[in-house]
């Protein structure tokens, strides 16, 4: 199975350095980059059987811009799911990331087990990633596009024992997955954003 992965375009929170709200949208740059990704998918003729998209506003805006860039798929093949959403850090939304990490690091807990009030731990995201992997394995789709978030991408990759560099908003990656093995065909390709 070919799994194309993209992180949503740059959000306003990415640009301003705070933890995003669920309703945080894309920055102007994020809108442009997502549209360029759509242009690339269309130009390269990449065949996609289904798109899995996070339910958060910035990912929904990303898919909208991808479509505006010329990429076409039957809307019935777009599956919006919370399985691929960003880690929830509810009580820290709107605050600088440094505050979250300072409290996490001083908690005495393993960083992967730390969970803020009303939020999730990194291990919770990894469990969601495993559930998503099972879902796509059973789907019968050969080529999928996942529009998601940085934490999810990292935890999904960890299921295959991979620790890859953080992805750029609007960058494109391709994994070929067979069972518990994944081969990276390309990672965080941003050549279409440089045009």
Automatic annotation (TrEMBL):
Please tell me where substrate binds in this chain: 7-14, 58
Gene3D superfamilies hit by this protein: Phosphoglycerate mutase-like
Keywords noted in UniProt: Hydrolase
Task: Tell me which species this is from.
Answer: Candidatus Shapirobacteria bacterium CG06_land_8_20_14_3_00_40_12
Q: What is the lineage of its organism?
A: Bacteria, Candidatus Shapironibacteriota
Q: Which domain of life is it from?
A: Bacteria
The name on file for this protein is Histidine phosphatase family protein
Query: Which GO molecular function entries does the Swiss-Prot or TrEMBL record give?
Result: fructose-2,6-bisphosphate 2-phosphatase activity
Keyword Transport on entry:
no
The answer to keyword DNA damage applying to this record is no
């Amino acid at each position: 199975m070919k799994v194309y992965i993209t992180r949503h375009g740059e959000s306003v929170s990415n640009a301003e350095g705070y933890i995003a709200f669920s309703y945080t949208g894309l920055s102007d740059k994020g809108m442009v980059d997502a549209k360029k990704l759509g242009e690339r998918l269309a130009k390269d003729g990449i065949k996609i059987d289904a798109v899995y998209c996070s339910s958060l506003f910035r990912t929904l805006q990303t898919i909208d811009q991808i479509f505006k860039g010329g990429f076409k798929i039957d809307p019935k093949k777009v599956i919006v799911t919370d399985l691929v959403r960003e880690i929830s850090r509810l009580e820290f939304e709107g605050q600088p990331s440094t505050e979250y990490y300072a409290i996490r690091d001083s908690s005495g807990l393993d960083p992967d087990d730390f969970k803020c009030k009303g939020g999730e731990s990194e291990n919770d995201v990894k469990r969601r990633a495993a559930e998503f992997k099972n879902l796509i394995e059973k789907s019968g789709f050969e080529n999928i596009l996942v529009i998601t978030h940085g934490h999810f991408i990292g935890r999904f990759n960890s299921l295959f024992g991979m620790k890859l560099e953080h992805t750029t908003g609007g960058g494109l990656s391709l994994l070929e997955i067979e069972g518990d093995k994944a081969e990276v065909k390309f990672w965080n390709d941003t050549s279409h954003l440089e045009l």
